[in-house]
Amino acid sequence: MQTIQANNYQVFFNENGYTYLNAILDVKSYSKIFIIADENTSNYCLPRLLSLLATEIEIEIIELEAGEEHKNIETCLQVWHSLTELGGDRKSIVLNLGGGVITDIGGFIACTFKRGIDFINIPTTLLAMVDASIGGKNGVDLGNLKNQIGIIREPKAVIIDTQFLETLPGEQMRSGFAEMLKHGLIFDKNYWNKLKNISNLNTDDLDTLIYQSIEIKNNIVSQDLTENGIRKALNFGHTLGHAIESYFLENDEKKSLLHGEAIAVGMILESYISKEKALISSEEYHEIKYVLSDIYDAVSFNEKDIENCINLLIYDKKNEFGNVQFALLDKIGNCKINESSTNELIYSAFSDYKS
């Protein structure tokens, strides 16, 4: 597959990625290589990466605990101390080997250590490949609030190695697939039509579909790196989805949801709001609801859950002057940003979801 050109970096695929990686390590003469991984990618992905690195530069492995609950400033402090104790300097480079948590927090750590050192994202999950590693967003959660602290700074490169997907359980693949479905809904109806017939897809299709998803996200981000306009479209399903994800993460009585599981619910709810605002037809809404409900298990909400999720909306990053803003569908394949909704309409969306 051809390399994708982003604003200030490139996205490389499979063997081309390692050719680039070894070349830049040679040319830039880095003082030290730090690989940030979690306990899962250390076991399942790190051996492959190390076997493909052709360099004499000293390599240090920094292993983090896996999970969204560790994507916080406390983890950053630990890693900053480790980088310092292991001799990291401004000529060091960080390789982020992992899913969205690792690429988010690893990028943030690199951007802030010594006022910024180079980093390369090597995503190992479908979610990270099509979403988290692309576009320059780096950051951590503030308590249970998603991605409240961060910086937009692009990596030196992103390397997509789809062999890593062979290590993933099915629920992690479905989590990433939600972002691909979102790309079709907001940007490309033909792409949505390909994805919605998931039973007809095979592994040979996956590389091509991943490539198309990255192209869509890169197309949007390249027009609006700092999210002042069209990039907000990528938040479709995320205004309510992030609130749901945060609420389930902090509530000991609830089983935490994977990101894509929460976003799938968010997309159904926000599609309902789109329908009620006459942006999409009833037929389009029911198609979206049917497709997503067929792929993702239903999530149970009681009245208290719904109230708490709605209360969390005030912390959404897109809000301006205290107003909650949504990215809503404007027919399948298009999106409208900076849309509002009443709490009554949100409650109705939850009610319809439960029906």
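That was protein one. Protein two is written in the same sequence-then-structure order:
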Amino acid sequence: MSPEEVARRLGWHKTKLYRIERGESRLILDDLEELLELYGVRSPERESLFQLGRDAWKRGWWLAYRDLYQGESFFVMENDAAKIGFYAPNLLPGLLQTEDYARCLIRAAHPDMADDAIQRQVQVRMERQAILTRRKPPRILAVMDEGVLRRTVGGETTYKKQLEHLLELGKRPNVDLHVIPFQAGEHMGQEGQFTLFEFPDPEDPPVAYQEGLFGDVYVEDVADMSRYMLAAEKSLDAALSKAETVAFIERLAKETR
């Protein structure tokens, strides 16, 4: 098979395969599994290659929590991205949440989960936020619906601390917060919550990510990505400016006891 044929059959952008084969892009275990399956690699070679793959990722802090997730694609992209765009009509993005706020959301989403398991989920979310304070943090763009900011998650105290946390985050040069007010009416971003990852190397195409009740979806196809990019553009067009958003959050915080 030609590289073009492999990329087509896996639903990848061809530059992704080129960069993996040249050793210029990290090979995550999910992608390794897809390649081995397509190439018909069987035991014992398969196990040997998987062990090499696992050894290559031992430095990833998230491996301590691998029992909570299906693969590490999300962590790798979040860690490597130069820009992360959140388009949030329903939920406040995890990278922006306080610990108490995150705990309340996780408990609501998993009402049958044991307390210790919930705590581990919270720990993962807090550890992810380390990328915001590293020497070269990614640029964060969060476009949130007004309803997300008005929802009193965890009671008045937790909610107010979350608003105050957003105001602190908004002071960072790499963080841009925007709210879409109710008065903006309908807009394209209402169709669903998604995240856009953009990478430092222009040869690495952007990836869209959507999380749902029945699993995660990663989108790299050029035609599909164009729709996500358009939804991102239209969402930002409907949103308040950064300064207007700060003023909006300050008003909400003052209204909260």
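The chain has a mean pLDDT of 90. Keep this in mind for the problem set.
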